[in-house]
Amino acid sequence: MGPGGNIYQDAIESHGDYGVKSANGEGRSCLRLCASAGGTGRHGMGSKGAVHELLECPIRHEKSCKYRGYNCPYAGTECHVTGDIPFLVAHLKADHNVDMHDGSTFNHRYVKANPQEIENATWMLTIFNCYGHQFCLHFEAFHLGIAPVYMAFLRFMGDENDASKFSYSLEVGANGRKLKWQGVPRSIRDSHKTVRDSLDGLIITRNIALFFSGGDRQELKLKVAGRIWREQS
After folding, report:
1. Which residues are within 8 A (CB) of 60 and not within 5 positions of it... i.e. 6 or more apart?
2. CA gap 229, 131 in Å, rounded
3. Triad 200, 205, 207: Cα angle to 5°
4. What is the pTM of this model?
5. Domains of the chain: which residue ranges?
6. CATH 2.60.210.10, applies to 98-230
7. In a 3-state reduction of DSSP, which class is residue 53?
8. Sorting pLDDT into bands at 50, 70 and 90, what band is 148?
């Protein structure tokens, strides 16, 4: 059974309560935080106004709260599972069959039998565990205008502030040539479509991809190598 098939429904059913518990717990955390904030600097506030503010605050605060759950970052199909990072890592491995890799350097080989056909598709190739965090490697095939291109990029499983503490590089090459990208991983708060549309990654045109593949241009073979490192504070 391919990733994102009927397993997806099982994931929703088996982990449905998790999202509810997480959301409720998150709301209570937001309520406590907002209660503390609302209790200072507002002397003389009537009890009715205070209660009204506390009741409203989790709803106003929810979209920006750093304690809110994350959406499943799997890009091969639409998945509505949410949760914290440890839960999502287990979910990606069990329900989407995503490979796990320990270490800050990696090599991944992408092979396509018919490179003349490019459909809009994204694959999550691997989850990397390094520096006590997880990173998702994506590889996408799409059309940039009328030109078919491939794009590889990295997303950080956590918030933007933590993602900005790291950098990464990706490269492909062959025959004495090399194409390299260096950037900052995007948080999984940003969808893979947002990252793709911003072109924030290693972009490879089909002609260059076929050149790197060698042979008779009848098969696409790309070796994507990469490295992740922590920036000095």
Report:
1. none
2. 8
3. 165
4. 0.69
5. 1-97, 98-230
6. yes
7. helix
8. confident
